[in-house]
Design brief:
The longest helix has 19 residues. It is built from twelve helices and 21 strands. It has two domains: 162 residues, Beta Barrel (Lyase, Ornithine Decarboxylase, Chain A, domain 1), CATH 2.40.37; 244 residues, Alanine racemase (TIM Barrel), CATH 3.20.20. The protein starts with a strand and ends in a 9-residue tail after the last helix. Helix 6 links the parallel strand 8 and strand 9. The protein binds ligand LLP. Ligand LLP binds next to helix 10 and helix 11.
Amino acid sequence: MMDHFLYKNGLLHAENVSITEICEAIDTPFYCYSVATIERHFRVLEAALKGLKATICYAVKANSNIAVLKLLGDMGAGADVVSSGELIRALKAGIPSNKIVFSGVGKTKGEITHALKENILQINVESEVELHCVNTIAKDLNKVAQVALRINPDVDARTHEKISTGRSENKFGIEWNSIDKIINDTDRLQNIEISGLAVHIGSQLTDLSPFRDTFKKLKEFVFHLESKGAKFKRLDLGGGLGIPYNNDETPTPQEYGKVIKEILGDMKCDLIVEPGRLIVGNAGILVTKVIYYKKGDTRNFIILDAAMNDLMRPSLYDAEHEIINVIETNQNVEKNAVDIVGPVCETGDTFARQVKLPKCETGDLFAIRSAGAYGAAMSSTYNSRALIPEIMVNKSRFSTIRERIEPETYLNYEKIPDW
Ligand code: LLP
């Protein structure tokens, strides 16, 4: 998918703003997002689903900054949330509660109460014990909870094992063969209305066939249950469509939409999709500066001021994010293999191994691409580092959408006991 991070006059820009210009005002490292790119990705998906009664409930976990949520909400997106914190964010950003679904295998009583009080569209329930818990809480609140049952379709998403969720050995969803019984038993749960079924088989899928297999299973299952008298208002298809990280090939949203239309286009019920990465992944970069260029006997290292605490994906999933110079380099200049690392005290703090780059020195700026999804949202203060700023660019303007959170600030929450 296209993004708006391009070189103009030899300088990397986010839309019409030069990254070097932002660096004059904001210390690196920082995340930088492009409004036009987020909008474009949303619109492309929306167009791919045209003709279906589908709502795009953006997966807040991918990038939960309220400025991003507001932008998407204004375009008509709903939200898929997985915690009270995300629900607070979505509502704060103005996303209407009747477009919010609540997913997750371990919702607490507090979270279920919160969701019911806010009258959200539906709670996606992942086990029988959770269903009973929702019923009890709804009864106390004198409400009828709208619930979708998340099914585990036992389909291999063929993605990284840590983000694959659709196999029966994964903790997610309700096993296929126990749904019948649960739906039967639900008649006795006065404060539950089963409004639909849900699936989500994993993230960063680069092949459409697992989606196809899942949607087919879902459809067969709906027919089977409807033949026994069940009625569903909605089917939630989850998220998971992958994006190109390092010029790799991924299915387009159009192709994804086509699969949905082919298999589920004739269903009577409404559809929900929960994309996260697809919308924001390529809409963000992590801007960072070289602290040292370190020469070694066997390897040379570029040591950046960004680290694994700012962007976990390379150390956690061996993800390969493309890393480019902010000031464009001459294509013909000599390139040498280097490892690009952060300053954190573990070898896992490595962004790239043996990539070929022109010579560089202290102060040079780099952009780690495709960092808009699961970047800032997964960051931590490991090594007592700051939580880095997030900047949003809109045409020729930029704005800080999250300030840097310094150790001095979060240290205010720590105490030495006085015993
Ligand atoms: N719906 C549910 C129920 C999910 O669990 C997820 C992601 C999504 C939707 C959105 O999936 P997406 O469209 O973004 O693939 N931190 C990992 C990704 C974890 C995904 C967790 N669930 C990473 O950086 O690759």
